[in-house]
Write a structure and sequence with these properties.
This protein is an all-alpha fold. 72% of the residues lie in helices and 2% in strands. A two-stranded antiparallel sheet has the order 1-2. A hairpin with a 2-residue loop joins strand 1 and strand 2. The longest helix is centred in the last third of the chain and has 27 residues.
């Protein structure tokens, strides 16, 4: 009965808002086709497989964060902690424990995700700016731990000495060169996106949205808001940790920068730029962010100014993000 009331509340409070994330669309199918064929058409537009992999990795991380940020209403500036833990988890597994990439990815995802699960009840005890400050503090804790624990993490120099290996199946070997690794990233991106899609279309996802829209009303209904917010935080951490593990495999390297609050800010910028209230908004934001950074960094060392200018213009002229603007224009036409 309580779940039905929460679901009705979520439906009522978001009436008239974006609902593109509720049901599959033709656009999502076309995106899938484009991503599957990316290695074939990227060279004709000046792209390459590794940058496509990085777009998907950052998109997955931003979509994971957006479950908490855009759909539950919790602004986290510390999610790089789980990205970095996933990254270090994969690196340490490959260096000391196994040559199996799937096992390393599983280990890194569990490390980051379980850390988020343990820390979530602490973080969600506060809302608003206080919640953001707690997440920053947690992120910095892991950042300085990575720097100081030099014998394990490599300190400022980062963790090296590991690389991705081919995945062996009976009668077939999946080589993880540039193209093979892109498809591994695409597979993980699809699994992560599918998980988020299912969650957001379930009563649990409706509860997250209801928390964002009217937390006080839910509290009066007797809903344990902090518990649901902690669940959102934990799921978000697992998805972000998976993206961090893939990033370590892409570079065959990880460093304390993968735990830094600067990266957390980048993920927030990506989500806001693309559109927090739209399921695919972070993907669009990641594509813009990574491609602009890649091009601008070849032109100027001050490439962050370009990103900053784009972000300012987006906030001024597209307050709902690019996908929010597109969706609103589509409804008017």
């Amino acid at each position: 009965m309580k779940n039905e009331m929460v679901s009705k509340l979520a439906t009522t409070t978001i009436a008239g808002q974006s609902s593109g994330w509720r049901k599959p669309s033709l656009g999502a199918s076309l995106l899938g086709v484009l991503l599957l064929a990316a290695p074939a058409w990227l060279p004709y537009v000046g792209g390459y497989n590794d940058i496509a992999s990085r777009v998907l990795i950052y998109a997955l991380a931003a979509m994971g964060l957006n479950l908490l940020l855009g759909f539950t209403g919790g602004l986290s500036f510390g999610h790089a902690a789980y990205f970095g833990l996933g990254s270090y988890g994969v690196g340490l597994m490959l260096k000391y424990a196994t040559h199996s990439v799937p096992m390393a990815l599983l280990g890194g995802t569990l490390l980051g995700g379980l850390a988020a699960t343990v820390l979530a009840p602490i973080a969600v005890r506060r809302r608003g700016i206080y919640f953001a400050m707690i997440t920053i503090a947690i992120g910095q804790l892991f950042y300085f731990l990575a720097i100081r624990w030099q014998s394990v993490t490599g300190g400022y120099d980062g963790l090296t000495g590991f690389s991705r290996h081919a995945i062996h199946f009976p009668g077939w070997t999946w080589t993880l060169g540039s193209t093979g690794f892109y498809y591994l990233v695409l597979l993980c991106f699809a699994l992560g996106a599918a998980l988020l899609w299912v969650v957001l279309n379930s009563p649990l996802g409706h509860t997250f949205v209801a928390i964002r829209e009217n937390q006080k009303r839910l509290t009066f209904l007797g809903v344990p808001v902090q518990r649901y917010a902690a669940v959102s935080f934990a799921i978000s951490g697992f998805v972000v940790a998976l993206a961090g593990g893939l990033n370590a495999l892409l570079d065959n390297f990880t460093s304390p920068n993968s735990l830094n609050n600067t990266l957390s800010g980048d993920l927030v910028v990506i989500a806001v730029l693309g559109g927090m209230r739209n399921f695919w908004g972070p993907f669009v934001g990641a594509a813009i962010f990574v491609l602009v950074r890649d091009y601008a960094s070849t032109v100027t060392d001050n490439w962050m100014s370009v990103i900053g200018l784009i972000f300012i213009l987006s906030v001024l002229f597209f307050p709902l993000g690019i996908m929010g603007f597109v969706q609103r224009k589509g409804k008017r036409s």
